[in-house]
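Posting for a labmate who doesn't have an account.
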Amino acid sequence: MMINIFADIPESLPEELFTSLLKRDSVHIERIVSKGHSTPPEQWYDQAWDEWVIVLEGQAVLLYEQNLQKLPMTAGDTILIPAHTKHRVEWTVPDINTVWLAVHLYK
């Protein structure tokens, strides 16, 4: 089945939109759409698996808990977030969609 990564995105996004594209034992690929969304204050993602992400369009800022390092991301930027690296989405641009492709790598 073929899909378009930019299709079927609602005009209004009260919450981030997570769409599973492929799920197997060792990998989960999903599209995430943000529009002014961020991780709630004081909440950190602490995943037991590696996650590779790319921003396909839009802009975002990731924040690592260690050293409170901010990582601005724009279209085309990728990053590998190692397992148990506490991180959060600090900011996404409010007036356009930020479309991410996330690849979760399970061991």
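Reply:
Got it, the structure tokens are right above this. The two ends are 27 Å apart (CA to CA).
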